[in-house]
Amino acid sequence: MLIKIHLVFEDEESGLPTVQEVAQLERRDLSPTTLVLTLSEAKTLLHRLQSHLVEQQVSVRQRQQLPCPSCQQPRRVKDNRHLVYRSLFGRLILRTLSIICHTCLLL
After folding, report:
1. pTM surpassing 0.90?
2. Confidence class of residue 107 from pLDDT cuts 50, 70 and 90?
3. Where exactly are the structural domains of the chain?
4. What is the rounded end-to-end Cα distance, in angstroms, of the chain?
5. Are 6 and 21 in contact, with CB atoms under 8 Å apart?
6. Which of 59, 55, 56, 78 is nearest to 68 (CA)?
7. Across the chain, which distance is largest between two alpha carbons, in Å?
8. Rounded to whole angstroms, how far apart are CA atoms 37 and 26?
């Protein structure tokens, strides 16, 4: 038996769903030992789930921060870096943007 786990994100503005596959599990012989997730399967599943959730949240937050709070003009990307975030389920490497408004010179 093949089990696919997907995560669906709905865009608040457009309402369009984005589907991302989190994991696939395969069970060949069904027995009491294969009935539940193993510890390694659970850790891998939670790490991937967390990775997708955090990436989506960071992406939404960055889009929200693009308009300048002062003049409402779109800010430009000044720099692009990676941030390492350590969690219970492993390290996440996040892409962070440094943005600046050329009109107001606000960061």
Report:
1. no
2. low
3. 2-100
4. 52
5. yes
6. 78
7. 65
8. 11
Q: Among residues 80, 4, 15, which one has the least CA distance to residue 45?
A: 4
DSSP class per residue in 27-95: -SS--TTTSS--HHHHHHHHHHHHHHHHHHHHHHHHHHHSB-TTT-PBPEEEEEEEEEEEETTEEEEEE
Contact indicator for 98, 78 with CB cutoff of 8 Å: yes
The model's pLDDT over 59-73, given as tens digits with 9 standing for 90+, comes to: 888 888 889 888 888
C-beta neighbour count of 67 within 10 angstroms: 14
- Taken as a whole, the chain contains a residue count of 107
Give me 3's structure tokens: 């089990």
Q: Return the structure tokens found at 5.
A: 């786990």
Residue 17 token pair: 């769903």
Sign of the torsion angle spanned by Cα atoms 94, 95, 98, 99: negative
**Given pLDDT bands bounded at 50, 70 and 90, which one contains residue 29?**
confident
